[in-house]
Structure formats: C-alpha cells, structure tokens
Amino acid sequence: MFLDRSRLPARSTGRVVALAIVAGLLASCGTKDKLATGAIPDDYRTRHPIVIAEAERTIDIPVASGDTRLPQGTRDVIRGFAAEYRNASSGVIQIMLPRGSANSHAAQIVRKDIRRQLAAVGVPAKRVIETGYEAGATGDAAPIRLSYVAIAAQTAPCGEWPEDLTLNTLQNRNYYNFGCATQSNLAAQIAHPTDLIGPRQMSPIDAVQRGQVINSWRGTDTGDGGTTIIFN
C-alpha cells in the first residue's frame, strides 16, 4: 500500500517528512554505535606479545673509597641476587670492577667479600668470573656490577608513538603504546618462563596427605545424628 501525498493536507505532509527525518537520524545513530563497538581491529596482546628470550640481569653494589667490607644490608642484597641466579641460570656470574675511579682500590678489597656471599648461597667458584670496566677518574664512587644471563619472559620496550594519536582516537582504534605496560608487568611477574611453553610434570600423589584431607571433609559423628566438620 502506497501513501499518496497529494491527497494529504499540507500539515500532515510536514509531519510525515519530519517523522522520516527523525527515523533516518535514529537509524544512523544505531549504525554508528554498532561500528564504534566493533571497529577495533588491533589487539594489544598481538602488538606487544610476551616472548621468551635471553635477558641480562644486573645489580650495582655501591662501594665507598674507604670500605674494607660490605655492610650487612648489602650482603643480604647480594645473597638474594645469587638465589635468583641459581633458580634462573646455569651460566656464570660476572663481577665487574671499576678501574680508574676513586674507589677502585676499595672495590678490589670488597670483591673478596662478594665472592664469599656468593659461595654461601651455593654458587660454585668456577662460575664466578671477574672483569673490569673503565669508570674514569671523575672522583665519583663507581659501583661494582654483578650480572648474569638467563632466559626470561619479556616484551619489547614501551614508549613508542609511531602514529598520530588523534587519528587513532577518531577511528576508535587503540594507540600503539596501549597495553604495553600491562604486558611488561605481567611478564615481570612470571617466575618460571617455561610455564608459557607448557605445563610441568605432575608430582606423585601423597597418599598420607590425601587421607588426612578426606578424613577432614568426612568429619566426625557427634552422637545426635549430626555431623561436625573438622578442618585441620
């Protein structure tokens, strides 16, 4: 059935035109909303993937020019670093000593204490090597650097802005650096990077522990028809 506008009064014709315009606007708004929610073609997990690669772990040990031994706090830091090394690497630990600095002589004395701390955690002496670096005679106290190489989960460096941010916003697309910090933080929290490759082998079942758990869930009879659940 077709509507013959020639037979409608002028006021009715105006109303029909107004309704048609409103209907068109509403339809266009619905189309824009649909495009806006589904128009993000990129994924930050694809743009900033977490990969397993070789990474260098380092720590700087401050040494004053008059030091003859390490303070207790510094010893604890070295032991913690050595414990991480044992869990993550089977290579060598480098002790990089400064040369030409005001504290170079003190660094040569303190290095023996560093070796003792590494040995106390279980690092074999054959896996500890000493190298040097030019610190320059600037008068500043150059640190002793400990480093080792291990496999780690990581992402590419963040902070890149290769595209126009306003253009991506108008197109309702994620900007390039979006999600990079989240991916980097997640990678840093992964204790065992091999977990990203596949699950570990299951440990044998502990029959004694299993029996204790079952008994705890079964509970004990209270004598009045009820059951008391006991959790150890």
UniProtKB/TrEMBL annotation:
Organism (species): Sinorhizobium garamanticum
NCBIfam families registered for this protein in UniProt: pilus_cpaD
Pfam families: Pilus_CpaD
Protein name: CpaD family pilus assembly protein
InterPro entries tied to this protein: Pilus_biogenesis_CpaD-related, Pilus_CpaD
